[in-house]
Each structure stands twice: as structure tokens, then as C-alpha cells.
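quick q for whoever's on today - can somebody do inverse folding on this one?? i tried earlier but teh output was garbage lol. C-alpha cells:
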């Protein structure tokens, strides 16, 4: 038996079966449009018979606002990025937007190609979670009526909305937490990624320690992941002056570091080692880690993005920088405050 390949049912086919005009079909499926009850009934019956569905993409491309919001991302499999995409896309969908994720490796070239795709799809806005687009490319997007939203990117560029998390504040607070825990030998486990958000945490922690007259061991043994944290721990705890307090600039680094410290060196957390992470990924709360960390307010960020897009307005007038504060989450990987001498 030969199976005939079918294409999507068109509005013209619905109009023919219903005995109405093509515009009557369009009005029937447009909220608030004027159409008589009799015509509406005939169109809906014909649409059900044929299995017709409105092509929202084509409809959006023929209007000023497509409702398509593109997210340019990389490392989508990492817990933090997956959580961010999950929260933002759900929020966008709840306000009637169409979330389109463009997966890149984060390089300048791939981010540029992704942003050109967003113009081709006439996306209403582009949210850049990974990589840094050039000012000229941002200008192209803005001139095409797009709103551009950069999250924790390298430069506070003119034109787009810049959403930043106060990473430096968290770095300084992490140092104070370890200091209050009585840690005498401190270290920071970072990565070779060198992104602005990661470097801000690292440099702020080191600066806070230096202002307190203390040196900090710094380990950057690879990319931002579990294996890098594990290798950092092997090198740190092979030294004579091994740390008793570590700030890891992400939770994945902290987990790798903690596992090696406990399993390969027999170190007891938090009695012999206090350790802090950043991101508050789901795994940080697992019993095996109970990791003290900092939570990025992803829900609040998603709410702000949605409010910007629902409000609409000129993309050229969207130039602003909005800051969000990370929230410390106290768990059991850090010792309680140690009493000072004489207390």
C-alpha cells in the first residue's frame, strides 16, 4: 500500500471546506477579531475535520512581534546551566513567549553565528548566557528591532540590557565565612575558563584575604568541572601546608575537591576542612555533600527578563544594568563559628 506524503493543512483548505473566505479563517483564529457566530462555527468544524492548526511561526513573522525569544547558551549539560535554562524557558512560556535554545560551544565565532540566526528568525529578543557578542553584532540586532539581554557577560556594553550577579560580594563573604570558622590556611579553587563571573569571585576572595594580611593558595588545574576540583584537591593535600578552608568558585569544583579530600586523604569535613561552593545546584543539598554555597537568584532574574519582554518598548531604550545579589546557603560543609581566645 502506497502512503502519500502529506503536508500541513492550510488555511485555504479550511476556507474551501467551510465555504468562507481565507480572511474569515484568519479572523476566526485571531483573538478579538470580528467574525459572526455562524462563520466561526463553520470554520471550527472544518478545521477539526481536516486537523488544521494555526501556523504561529508564519503568523509571527508577518507581524512586528514574533514572540520568539532566543537563548544563546553553551555547556547545557552542566547542572547550573540546565537549571538556568529550565527556569528561564518556563517563565518565558508562561507569559506567551516561544523559547528557542541555540546551543553553542561559547566561542566568539559560534555566538556570532547564533545571533545572526536570531535575526533570520526575526526573534523578538536574544538572551546571551554564554560567550560575548561583538558591539557591532549587538548593534545589528538592535537595528533590526531586537531586544538584547546579556547575563553575566564580559563587558557592560551600551545598548543591551545587562543583567549581572554581584559575584565579588559573594567572594568576600566566602572569605569571612571561612575566617569565622577559624580556618588558618585558606585556598581558592578556580578554573582556567577565566570568565568574568568566575574571575570576580576569585579575585574578590583573594583581595579580602590580602586586606586581612593573609595569603591564599590558588589552584587552576583545568576547566570548570568536577574533575578539575578533584585534581586541585590532590595537589593541595599533597603539600606540607595543606589548607583547612577552601572556597571553590562553583559547586562542581567543590564536590570534586570534597570527594578527593575525604576518600583519598581521609580528611573529615567540616572538622578538618571547611569548604564553600557557588551556584547552589541541586546536588549541593545532597546528603553526601551538604555543601555551604551561594544561590544565584535565578527565579528573580527570570521574572525580570519576562517583565522586560512583556512590557515591550523600544529595544534601543533598553540600555540598563540590573544587579542581583547571590544569597548564602548555610549547610554543614563549614564549621560553626569558632570562639576567639578568651571567649
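ok took a stab at it. sequence:
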Amino acid at each position: 500500500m502506497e502512503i502519500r506524503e502529506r503536508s500541513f493543512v492550510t488555511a485555504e483548505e479550511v476556507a474551501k471546506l467551510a465555504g468562507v473566505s481565507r480572511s474569515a479563517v484568519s479572523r476566526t483564529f485571531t483573538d478579538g477579531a470580528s467574525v459572526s457566530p455562524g462563520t466561526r462555527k463553520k470554520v471550527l468544524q472544518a478545521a477539526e475535520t481536516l486537523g488544521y492548526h494555526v501556523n504561529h511561526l508564519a503568523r509571527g513573522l508577518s507581524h512586528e512581534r514574533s514572540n520568539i525569544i532566543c537563548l544563546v547558551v553553551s555547556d547545557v549539560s552542566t547542572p547550573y546551566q540546565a537549571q538556568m535554562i529550565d527556569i528561564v524557558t518556563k517563565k518565558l512560556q508562561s507569559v506567551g513567549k516561544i523559547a528557542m535554545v541555540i546551543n553553542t560551544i561559547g566561542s566568539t565565532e559560534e555566538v556570532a553565528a547564533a545571533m545572526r540566526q536570531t535575526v533570520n528568525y526575526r526573534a523578538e529578543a536574544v538572551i546571551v548566557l554564554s560567550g560575548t557578542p561583538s558591539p557591532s553584532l549587538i548593534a545589528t540586532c538592535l537595528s533590526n528591532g531586537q531586544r538584547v539581554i546579556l547575563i553575566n557577560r564580559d563587558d557592560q556594553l551600551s545598548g543591551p540590557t545587562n543583567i549581572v550577579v554581584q559575584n565579588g560580594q559573594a567572594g568576600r563573604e566566602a572569605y569571612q565565612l571561612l575566617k569565622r570558622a577559624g580556618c588558618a590556611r585558606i585556598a581558592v579553587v578556580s578554573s582556567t575558563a577565566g570568565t568574568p563571573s568566575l574571575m570576580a569571585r576569585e579575585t574578590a576572595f583573594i583581595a579580602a584575604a590580602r586586606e586581612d594580611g593573609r595569603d591564599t593558595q590558588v589552584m587552576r588545574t583545568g576547566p570548570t568541572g568536577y574533575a578539575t576540583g578533584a585534581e586541585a584537591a590532590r595537589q593541595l593535600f599533597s603539600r606540607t601546608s595543606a589548607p583547612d578552608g577552601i572556597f571553590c568558585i562553583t559547586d562542581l569544583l567543590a564536590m570534586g575537591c570534597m570527594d578527593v579530600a575525604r576518600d583519598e586523604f581521609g580528611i573529615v569535613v567540616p572538622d578538618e576542612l571547611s569548604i564553600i561552593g557557588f551556584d547552589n545546584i541541586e546536588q549541593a543539598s545532597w546528603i553526601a555533600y551538604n555543601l555551604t554555597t551561594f544561590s544565584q537568584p535565578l527565579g528573580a532574574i527570570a521574572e525580570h527578563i519576562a517583565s522586560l519582554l512583556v512590557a515591550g518598548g523600544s529595544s534601543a531604550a533598553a540600555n540598563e544594568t540590573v544587579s542581583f545579589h547571590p544569597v548564602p546557603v548555610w549547610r554543614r560543609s563549614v564549621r560553626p563559628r569558632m570562639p576567639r581566645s578568651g571567649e
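fwiw The domain at 11-54 is CATH 1.10.260.40 (434 Repressor (Amino-terminal Domain)). also The mean pLDDT is 86. so keep that in mind when u check it
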